[in-house]
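Below is one such protein, fold included:
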Amino acid sequence: MNSSYDNSLIEYADELAINYKLISDISYCVENINTYFPFVGERINFRLLNNTKFVDSDQEHISFDAVNFIKSLLDKRICRSDDVVIYIGDSLTNNGYEFYLNDLLKIIPFLVSKIPQHHYVLFKDFKKIIYISFENEIRFGVIN
């Protein structure tokens, strides 16, 4: 069942004509995150990942910084615009959403400004992840 945040996200993506695939059962994605990524407490331990990138932002600039962070991954050829990613929130959205990374750039400002939760962008190969925290931290890492 969709939450009100899911409905808002779907409506926004449809307005922008962004192609996405709704994932109503995200347990497989969460299981892969828990299996393949190292944790310290309840958070991914990015220090144990390869090719890590970190940015701390503030509430006023988080949308801008998140978009620029992802663009820098594209510019450095760490990621490609046609990479398939899965967006998962940690509490307010019930569904996952599969996008192309380039389309995710268009919707990131909405996600971080309108849905107050931790945001996970898992690459379809389950080897790369972007994390945008509710505390305005932006992290990226790659597993071996």
Notes: Residues 4-142 form one domain. The chain has a mean pLDDT of 94.
